[in-house]
Design brief:
Layout lengths: L6 H17 L3 H12 L5 H7 L11 E4 L9 H17 L6 E5 L5 H14 L4 E3 L6 H10 L4 E5 L8 E8 L1 H8 L2 E2 L4 H10 L14 E2 L3 H11 L12 E4 L6 H10 L6 E2 L25 H10 L3 E5 L6 E7 L2 E4 L2 H14 L5 E5 L5 H9 L3 E4 L3 H4 L10 E6 L3 E3 L10 H17 L4 H12 L1 E10 L4 H12 L4 E2 L2 E2 L2 E4 L7 E4 L3 E7 L5 E10 L6 H23 L3
Parallel strand pairs: 2-3, 2-4, 3-7, 8-9, 8-10, 13-14, 13-15
Antiparallel strand pairs: 1-5, 4-5, 5-6, 10-11, 11-12, 15-16, 17-23, 18-19, 20-21, 21-22, 22-23
Helix pairs in contact: 1-2, 4-5, 4-8, 9-10, 10-15, 12-15
Length: 558
């Protein structure tokens, strides 16, 4: 691989860039790349990074920075990806249209429209969603329209300079558990191979722009989403909401109105889609400060709960008043509340979560005689949990604010129906003079405090993540919080995950699948004696802090 430092390497790099430039269909990125080439040798590091390799198509599809070159999101990369995808579908005789959705990020609409033209150029019908819409609407449309596959152009909650490309499969290729779900191996590697086999982009036939669907597909989604909650349940609830500059507001407010709830108060500064996300450092409700405007609105309006979607509205965050302040509930807390609510509502079937989520759902299911499964991280695995026949999926969640409350509606995480179900639960509790935090205390008294936290380290150099994973594998501690480690599970080569367990703690370490982060998921289980939930929570919090310090040391990052 050329480093761009020697004369020969620099010449090779320049030639590769010029070959790419000649085949790039977008005048804007051609100009961008030409300027980088013209600045050589000063731009050698930049150009080397852009050509460090192609942006790899994996189980999360494509995701990367918006920039010219093969190691970025741009019209050339999208054209190649679309051509590879439609060739892969054709090779498997997959009938049906390709449905395409997009969010409001920079480049999203252009990437969606180019995908449609590649599909029609290959003789496949292309159906575009009518406007920038949430990812769950695309996942719904794949099932509703009997599509061969679906593409969603989004980078979810990544920074504004990123974009991405997610692929969903229809029933024919996805099978009973994966109909309308994201791809899993070996589809990802097969599609990647088909993408690499695409020849010059100038030879990729482009057809008509496809068919832009009407608003009826959105109305159909809204009707189906509203039907997830009990129509006759309590509705007295004041709600504050933010879409975080994303595309969730119009669909969520329509779904709430259709379900009989009052219109949520929406954070004005974040209500309209804005690809620059000007009021937040990172457009992710998990990030510190991202929901400050939301909780301020909730305080001003006397809201009972506050809800945030991420920019493509497939995730849902919930804040509640607690001790005179507003507190964001952890994803595990919301997941357990939703599962408990659905169980008490009589929703039969399998309940599932991931290896990095709280073990409390397992405990609840065991106590209530319900089937449970634990999967690798990601909704592509959650929706395929269990056998599917005897125990169809009833509910799945992951601690990163993803919830699937109605698998027959959307077979993926869905921040709209999750918000509706949280509101249904909160309204029902309010009618009884109770709260979400009170219900969490009741569950803790019954099953013990399952306190969770996350140690997350963002890196500039991905080799730092490899070094930390190697460090903990080579120097695995023998104890955690003075308890002997009773089980060590290394999921390599299937997944880069290490799990450590003691009698009352668990640590799961893995690299993030979508961001340059190393993540350690921490859990402490603290029994509740004589109903003293507050005391148990205090002990668990202290243990979590100590576990955080021990885990950082074991990873070699402190």
């Amino acid at each position: 691989m050329a480093t761009g430092t020697g004369t020969t390497g620099l010449d090779e790099l320049r030639e590769r860039a010029r070959i790419w430039l000649d085949d790039d269909p977008d005048p804007a990125t051609r100009d961008e790349l030409r300027q980088v080439i013209d600045r050589l040798p000063d731009s050698a590091a930049d150009l080397t990074d852009r050509f460090a390799g192609p942006l790899t198509f994996g189980t999360a599809g494509l995701r990367g920075p918006l920039r010219a070159g093969p190691n970025g999101m741009n019209l050339a990369v999208v054209t190649q990806a679309a051509a590879g995808l439609v060739a892969w579908l054709a090779a498997r005789d997959a009938d049906g249209p390709l449905v395409i959705g997009y969010d409001a990020r920079h480049g999203s609409r252009a990437f969606a429209e180019q995908t449609a033209r590649v599909a029609t150029g290959a003789g496949r019908e292309a159906l575009l969603l009518p406007r920038p819409l949430p990812t769950p609407v695309l996942a719904y449309a794949v099932r509703r329209l009997g599509a061969a596959a679906g593409v969603m152009v989004t980078a979810s909650h990544n920074p504004p300079q990123d974009n991405g490309y997610k692929v969903y499969l229809g029933a024919a290729l996805g099978g009973p558990l994966g109909a309308g779900a994201q791809i899993v191996p070996p589809a990802d590697t097969e599609i990647e191979a088909a993408i690499r086999a695409v020849g010059p982009l100038s030879a990729v036939p482009l057809g008509d722009p496809g068919t832009v669907l009407g608003e009826d597909i959105v109305e159909s989604y809204v009707d189906s989403a509203a039907a997830v909650v009990d129509r006759d349940g309590p509705r007295d609830l004041t709600i504050a909401y933010t879409p975080l500059h994303g595309v969730g507001a119009t669909v969520l407010t329509a779904a709430f109105a259709r379900a009989g709830f009052g219109t949520p108060a929406v954070v004005t500064e974040q209500a309209a889609p804005d690809p620059d996300f000007p009021t937040v450092s990172f457009p992710n409700p998990e990030e510190p400060g991202a929901t400050d405007l939301l909780t301020a609105l909730a305080e001003r309006t006397g809201a009972d709960i506050a809800i945030a979607n991420d920019p493509d509205a497939d995730r849902c965050a919930v804040a509640v008043p607690d001790g005179g302040k507003w507190r964001m509930l952890r994803g595990d807390e919301v997941g357990v509340l939703l599962a408990d609510h659905l169980i008490r509502r009589g929703t039969a079937g399998l309940y599932a979560t991931t290896i990095v989520s709280s073990s409390m759902l397992r405990t609840i299911c065991a106590a209530r005689g319900l089937p449970f499964d634990e999967t690798l991280t990601g909704f592509k695995w959650i929706v395929r949990a269990g056998s599917g026949a005897d125990d169809p999926l009833a509910f799945g969640y992951e601690e990163a604010l993803g919830y699937c409350v109605a698998p027959d509606h959307v077979r993926d995480k869905d921040g709209i129906t999750a918000a509706l179900t949280v509101a249904e639960l909160a309204a029902g509790l309010k009618a009884e003079g109770r709260t979400l935090t009170g219900r969490l205390d009741e569950l803790a008294a019954e099953f013990g405090v399952h306190a969770t936290d996350q140690l997350s380290v963002r890196v500039d150099d991905l080799s730092e993540i490899d070094a930390a994973m190697t460090h903990i594998r080579n120097r695995t501690p023998g104890t955690l919080l003075d308890e002997p480690i009773t089980a060590t599970e290394d999921l390599l080569p299937a997944a880069d995950v290490l799990i450590l367990r003691t009698a009352s703690t668990r640590v799961v370490v893995r690299p993030s699948g979508t961001e340059p982060k190393l993540k350690a998921y921490l859990e402490v289980i603290e029994p509740v004696a004589e109903g003293d939930v507050t005391g148990a929570r205090g002990r668990a919090a202290a243990s979590l802090q100590a576990l955080r310090t021990e885990t950082a040391a074991a990873l070699g990052i402190w």
